[in-house]
Amino acid sequence: MLTRLATRPATLADQPIYWQSCGPFHADSHLKMPQKPRSTRATAPRLGKALKRSFFDRSVHEVAPDLIGATFLVGGAGGIITEVEAYHHTDPAAHSYRGPTPRNQVMFGPPGFSYVYRSYGIHWCVNFVCEEAGSASAVLIRALEPTHGLAAMRRRRGLEDARALCSGPGKLCEALGITIAHSELPLDRAPIALHARTEAPEIITGVRIGITKAVDLPWRYGLKGSKFLSKRF
Asked: In Å, how far are 60, 63, 97, 187 from 213, measured between CA atoms?
């Protein structure tokens, strides 16, 4: 005679052994499970409105300090402008001082274009042309705080330290991939993008660096307290 087997345990005590070994279930058990770690990736700061070429149709001494805190990107890589120098056509240290040449011709054109030149035959340097056509004045971009495209900038520079990526005009051009091919380009079209600062910075001034003429002019502007400068003020 066959004996009929029970199809389910009658009580919790009759439950299979694996249930008892796991312990009773609590409503907050999900809180004790391993949680997915939060991302530690830094968030890029909010970008201000896009700057147009008309922004540069002013005195170079107005544009230069207004660029501190703005964001400069080339192909999506770049950061916050922390240091610049102004060069006026009446300034003996300006490339345009002795008139137009094939190299500096863009400085004599309309404002809002890039002027890229080779420094000491080694490093590229990027400038933003200012003032009306014929004035031949420009702002040299000396340093950035990297905020966008850090992986690409680190690869180009061959180093990890963010503070060293763009701490000089030649360094920032290498980090952003700027070459002579980027000269005479409009500053409000791809691959270049410029965004206004989102808050008013505290600006410091000092004499310019690496020149032998008009060395006493306080036409160097920087973001006070920044760790991303080419040289302390």
From this structure: 18, 22, 11, 28
